[in-house]
Structure formats: C-alpha cells, structure tokens
Sequence to fold (275 residues):
Amino acid sequence: MELWFTEKQTANLGLDLRIKETLHEEQTPFQHLAVLDTLQYGRMLILDGMVQTTIGDEFVYHEMISQVALHTHPCPKKVLVIGGGDGGSIREILKHDTVEQATLVEIDERVVAASRKWLPEISIGLQDPRCQVVIDDGIKYVAAHKNSYDVILVDSTEPVGAALGLFAKPFYQSIYEALTDDGIMVAQTESPFVNRDLIHSVFADVSAVFPIARLYLANVPTYPSGLWSFTLGSKKHDPLKVDLNSMKRLPMRYYRPEVHHGCFALPEFVAELTK
Fold:
C-alpha cells in the first residue's frame, strides 16, 4: 500500500509527497511535530501539518535567509536567529570565520531535540562551541537585548498562532533596537503567489523602521508555490552595493556572488508588492 502525506498549503492548493516511513511523531506543548522519510526529498520536518524543511531542498532556504545578510555586513560577529529550531540557519552562519557567537532562540525545545536526532545534516551547527541555544519566546528575547547583534534572522514558521507576532511592525522596531549601529535583519516572508497581502504589509512595516529595505526571492520546491520571499532591513549597508569581486567563496549549493545581486531582480508582479 502506498502512503502519502498531503500538506494543505491553502484552501485550494496542496503538496503531495509519497512517504517511505514515519520516523517520529509527537504532540509538544506548542504544536504537533512529525519527521517523515519521503521518497522525493528525504527526511522532512513537519509542524502542525506544514512542511518546515526537507533534506532534499533545505539548502536553498537556509543559505538564502542567512548568506545575503552575512555577505552584506562587513564583519558580522554576533548573530541571532529567532525560530529555526532545526539549526539550518545556524549552520550557515557559522561558515563565516568572523562570527564569534550565533544564538538560536526557539520557543519549542522539542523541535531542537527532534532535529538533532533526525536531521543531523541540518542541525550540525548546534554542536559548535560558538552556538548558544536558548529556549524562550523570541519576541521577549529580542526586546530584552538592545544594541546586541550585528545580524538578526527571523526564521519563523508560517504566520499562524504564536508566530503572528513575528510578522508585526512592533517586532521589527524591537529588532531595530536589538541591532548594532550598522545591523541587518532578514525575515522569511512567504510566497508572492499565495501571500501577497502579507508581503506587502511586511515590506511596508520594515521600510518604515529601517532606512534600507529590500525584497528578494529564492526557489524552495516544498514551500507553497515553490517561490519564496525574504525581506531585508538594514541600518547602513545596502546589499545591492556589495562588491561581488571581494566576496569570499564559501561552500554553498545555491547561493553564490551572482545570485546575491540576481535575487533582488524582482518580476514585475513581485516588485508591485514593494510599492
């Protein structure tokens, strides 16, 4: 008998993946968590029925949410990740030898534990001595750490439930205050095909808080529509002014110097969301 997992991405759109095996399943204090082994993308982390990451395509998301900001900032030393309990963003951050401390703030410790066990390729950075894992509410943590970080990444789940506050202007203002004088933030901001109102709202809020705001794109096959957006806010450094010739080549599978500038070249229907 064939077994399939279906993620109902919207009321009219779904993703079907053939399942080899259910590796883990539990109800945490915050959400339903499962790890499935799929035939197409390998092991997959699911929270409340929504795909968070897979071994097959995670490198796109994790490289793009982190490397654009890290290559824009001239010397990132302290980096904060809100959410992202799988550890993929931490792995990418720690590729930079300037980074002295990478802090992961995840509200659900069971996501971290499951990722350590079932997704070691993604969570490997959590073992690095430069990494600090804090189990806490990200909004409260950011508010309590003024002028502390060079880069802050909001590696959140979809904007439902407890994550709604991570897509609000007061949170972006709090991030601004938690950044150093030339700090940069990046937030994942969903799909321009199915979340247009959200992207438009977030970009407007980030633009109101930061002097430099940019929207950029990447292709993540297991996320709704496969086209994903990220919103960057910067106090000083413009990612479009980065000298590609001076960029250090690090081991990547998606991100490269040419992609750094190219990801900001928005199709017209996406560019409209920034106006």
